[in-house]
Every structure is written in C-alpha cells, then in structure tokens.
Design a protein that fits this description.
Helix content: 25-40%
Number of helices: 2
Number of strands: 3
Largest sheet: 3 strands, antiparallel
Order of helices and strands: EEEHH
Radius of gyration: 14 Å
Oligomer: single chain
Distance between the termini: 17 Å
Strand order of the largest sheet: 1-2-3
C-alpha cells in the first residue's frame, strides 16, 4: 500500500493530531481523528437507522473544519487516480 501524506491539523499539539492520507492505488482516503463520545456515536447511529450500529471493525472520527482543504485535496487525489 503506497500511502501519501496529505496534511495534519495546523493547530495540532503533536500529541492529538488529526491527519489525512490517501492511498492512490486503492483509491481510498485515510483519516486520523478524535473518537466521538458515546452520545455522539449514538446520535450518528440514530440518524441513519438503516445503517445500524457501527461495527467493531469501523470507526467514526471527528475532523475539524479547518482541515476541509486537506480532505478536498485527498478527494482530488483519489479522483485523479480513477482517471488513470
């Protein structure tokens, strides 16, 4: 897997650092973020009842809005890979 770093939260304290990567070959975006609390996770699950609870093999993560440009950059990289 060839993972490419896209960006890290510019306000990070380096101990808690939301980060964005892309795997162009797999055409996937990888996100590191904060785990939501139980209440927020329950709200997410309730908002999409057809989806059910989040499986143990998956996670909901929080990414601050200031990282939207990095997420867009990651989306663009994956889209470019699809055109190859």
């Amino acid at each position: 897997m060839a993972v490419e770093f896209v960006g890290i939260d510019p306000d990070t304290d380096r101990d808690h650092c939301p980060t964005v990567w892309v795997d162009v070959k797999a055409q996937e975006i990888l996100l590191q973020g904060w785990k939501p609390g139980a209440e927020t996770q329950a709200q997410c699950e309730e908002s999409s009842p057809a989806n059910g609870p989040v499986p143990d093999s998956e996670a909901i993560v929080r990414i601050p809005a200031r990282m939207i440009p990095m997420v867009r950059e990651a989306c663009d990289a994956v889209e470019r890979a699809q055109l190859r």
